[in-house]
Amino acid sequence: MFRRLFLLLTFVLPVLSQNCVTSNDCYVSCSNVKPTQLNLLKNTDWIAVPWDNNKCYFHNKKTKEDQDEFPTLYIDI
Predict the structure, then answer these.
(1) Neighbours of 47 (CB within 10 A)
(2) What separation in angstroms does the CA of 52 have from each of 23, 41, 46?
(3) Which of 2, 13, 64, 71 has a 20 to 30 Å separation from 57 between CA atoms?
């Protein structure tokens, strides 16, 4: 019984808690950015990366640049 519980907690629950398969289909919640702003990042090179405090920084997958401000100047609308 304990072995099954250990296996469940060790292998099954971490897989079930994943909400991102790739960086393009991941939903991230950020306290410093509105959800509508995060939607603008879809189909761009920018992704939001959460900190432990619920805020996010932004990472460019192409240039490897990181910044704290929302990358409004770099998004083609």
Answers:
(1) 20
(2) 18, 21, 19
(3) 13
pTM for the full model?
0.64
Domains and CATH numbers, the chain: 27-77 (2.20.70)
In terms of Cα–Cα distance, which of 21, 5, 3 is closest to 13? 5
CA dist., res. 43 & res. 58, Å (int): 14
Summarize pLDDT for 47-70 with one digit per residue, the tens.
999 998 989 999 999 999 999 999
Q: pLDDT for 21-32, tens place per residue?
A: 665 667 788 999
Q: Is 30 helix (H, G, I), strand (E, B) or coil?
A: coil
